[in-house]
Write a structure and sequence with these properties.
Blueprint lengths: L8 E12 L2 E13 L4 E5 L6 H8 L8 E10 L2 E2 L5 H9 L2 E4 L3 H4 L6 H12 L4 H14 L5 H4 L9 H13 L5 E5 L7 H18 L2 E6 L2 H7 L2 E6 L2 E7 H6 L4 H8 L4 E2 L2 E2 L40 E4 L2 E3 L6 H6 L4
Parallel strand pairs: 3-8, 3-9, 6-7, 7-8
Antiparallel strand pairs: 1-2, 1-4, 4-5, 9-10, 10-14, 11-12, 13-14
């Protein structure tokens, strides 16, 4: 990671809504973050917290309608991805920004060979002829650890195991040497052994290729081993942002604290009972007017019911959207 370098991706004030028969769903609310060259940014939160919708909003992967990116700015290579034309965005999405989807079986086309699916972005975005594209596709399969790569280009997705299909998805995402790779829970559907292999592979590829990575997951245990920084999302908002070590050693948002208690651990001969976060995530039918976590929070104050907390600074690179982190309020006790 290049410390002090300008962000390769800078997101400011992103808001995304879905238009449904029941009204608007405010899925992403005023999200801002940046990504530095070569770093791995973890994005964690429960299902429905806005992780995937946020990242798909950045690069135009949401169907419109029903989705609408209402406002915000997403700067990449001097361009705002939210206002650039569709053709430019397609070229960036397939070339400079790669995306790995959660389920490789539904993301890969079952009627085309794996080789054809890897070769498609190579021919479209890099202008390679068929022979050169095939050779490069074999190199990519070899890079992600699939043996007998050239022969396997002629196989179909159903002829690969779950772990191997995920490796194929990684190969497709890496085909055009992206500067940024977005991985949307790429190990969720895999067993623990294969998950560990994919995580190790991603570490190796990141070191070898020098790309920046956004890793979306609900599993803080995964993030602990691979991320440089972490953003925690809840109710379509970022509630905490910190270097990975700070997040685990000094969590400042009650939701982050609660998430950390849900990580399974084994102590001595008997397993510790699993912890759950009581209550339900908020209904996102309107823009937030108060803290989204207040209904489930053990620290709830009167001010939490009438204001959305800002992201207050804790230390260098660490902030939390919680009134407990506002030193001025804590000093005069006006939140109580």
């Amino acid at each position: 990671m290049a410390d002090g370098a300008a962000p390769i991706l800078d997101v400011q004030g992103l808001n995304t809504v879905f238009h449904t028969r029941g009204g608007e769903v405010h899925a992403v609310n005023d999200v801002s973050f940046s990504l530095k060259p070569g770093e791995l940014l973890g994005v964690v939160g429960e299902s429905g917290s806005g992780k995937s919708v946020t990242m798909m909003s950045l690069i135009g992967l949401l169907p419109t309608p029903p989705a609408e990116v209402r406002n915000g700015r997403v700067m990449f290579a001097g361009q705002d991805l939210l206002t650039t034309d569709a053709e430019t965005l397609r070229n960036i999405r397939g070339g400079d920004i790669g995306f790995i989807f959660q389920d490789p079986m539904t993301s890969l086309n079952p009627v085309f060979t794996v080789g054809m699916q890897i070769m498609e972005p190579l021919r479209k975005h890099m202008g390679l002829r068929k022979r050169a594209a095939k050779a490069r596709a074999a190199e990519l399969l070899d890079l992600v650890g699939i043996p007998d790569a050239m022969a396997r280009l002629d196989d179909y997705p159903h002829q690969f195991s779950g772990g191997m299909r995920q490796r194929v998805m990684i190969a497709i995402a890496l085909a055009c040497d992206p500067k940024v790779l977005i991985a949307d829970e790429p190990t969720t559907a895999l067993d623990v052994t294969i998950q560990a292999q994919i995580l190790e592979l991603m570490k190796e590829l990141r070191t070898k290729l020098g790309m920046a990575v956004i890793w979306i997951t609900h599993d803080l245990g995964v993030i602990a081993g691979i991320a440089d920084r972490v953003i925690v999302m809840y109710g379509g908002q970022i509630v905490e942002h910190a270097p990975v070590r700070d997040l685990f050693s000094n969590p400042q948002h009650p939701y982050t604290e609660a998430l950390l208690t849900t990580i399974p651990t084994v102590t001595g001969a008997r397993s510790k009972r699993l912890t759950v976060i009581e209550g339900q995530p908020p209904i996102l039918g309107a823009p937030p007017e108060a803290c989204p976590f207040r209904e489930r929070c053990k620290y709830r104050f009167e001010i939490c019911d009438r204001m959305v907390p800002a992201r207050y600074p804790i230390s260098d690179g660490h902030d939390a959207a919680c009134f407990r982190a506002d030193t001025a309020l804590r000093k005069d006790k006006s939140y109580a």
